[in-house]
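Students often ask why we bother encoding 3D structure as a string. The short answer is that it lets us treat folding as translation between two languages. Here is a chain of 430 residues written in the first language.
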Amino acid sequence: MSEADKGAFTPAYRAYALGLLVVVYVFNFIDRSILGILVEPIKQDLGVNDTMMGFLGGIAFATFYTLLGIPIARMADSGSRRNVLSVCLALWSGATALCGFAQNFFHLLAARIGVAVGEAGGSPPSHSMISDMFPADKRATALAIYALGIPIGTMLGNLGGGWINDAFDWRTAFFVVGLPGVMLSLIVRFTLKEPPRGAAEGIELSSEAAPPVKEVFSYLWSLKSFRLMALGGSLHAFVGYGVSYWIPAMFNRSHGLSTGEMGIALFYLGFAAIAGTFLGGYFGDKMSQRDVRWYLWLPGIATMVSVPFSAFVYIHAEPYVALWVLAVPYFLGAYYLGPTFALTQGLVGLRMRALASSILLFILNIIGLGLGPQFTGIASDVLNATTSLGADSLRWALVLSLIFNVVSAVLYLMAGRTLKQDMQRSAELN
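And here it is in the second language, the structure alphabet:
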């Protein structure tokens, strides 16, 4: 990094830049998660079933999110990451507002596809810029702080969406949460600075072009630790997205709680997820200094411990006891974020970072986001049609999904076996 760059990227400015990227990520998840709290009123208004709503929040969103993520990340690795992020933020925020105009399922589907296309350009350039601003021994913490946007955005989406729906209607909720993001995109464009690639490592990067997508994917897939981690993270996301999407509807059907009541409850539960997200990155950085495999062991252990608590939540008869216990899986379930993203950045070369992040998100989201809500929706409809569970079919569909969390934990623990060898290969790339 040149002396001018060092002057521009002071600790204070890095803190500002990270904070701004967190705010952007908050808007990302407000706009993504608000659909979950609004499932029941949308179903009633548009006349759709659980399978269709699962498709809307799962496969339909994930397909465009993941497929567009890779070419957008390629643009970010080759050009201005800041500009890519700014344009994409304006796109997904505007599309969120358009959801409020939907008159049928297909109108809403088209608008949510717009949200997906925009959000595809959110995390890859952000991950890459953060990795160039913070050194390796602080990167998991920085990326965990960035990942706080997930629980904060989700809790604000639940709170705001639930309250606005109760006070007005679900259409107004989309208008209110979507439009501010368009203004935020201008702040990103005119105040966020592009960090020099390789700055955190003190490497002067050559002017050679970023490697092609096939080369980056082949390299990553050749690393056994990455393959197992990516699959483990995907199954974790499979359960997590299914739960976050359907949990408001479950408490409504099985316990009679309104969208407003669930919005408030999930808002407070979000603080548990915030703590888990930050501590996962913090402890990942600290413990990995003794043994880098803790980046994988920590998420694996946390995920396994969370399973019995989640099962208790879904089957317990008392709603407020279940909500209190739900804080435990919210806390432990967030541990995987910082270590997983940080380790991916550490396994690749400097010009691969945005693309590597996009490839990881592609795998996580095509399986997790794409299939998680869909699986739970289909399982709920099947159980409702073939058993006498009735409204409780959804809670038992959520119980079934926990099998995938057990497998996820095992895969994270297995990934540690080859991590040291794979890290050595990555050190030879730069």
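Translate back mentally: The radius of gyration is 21 Å. Keep this in mind for the problem set.
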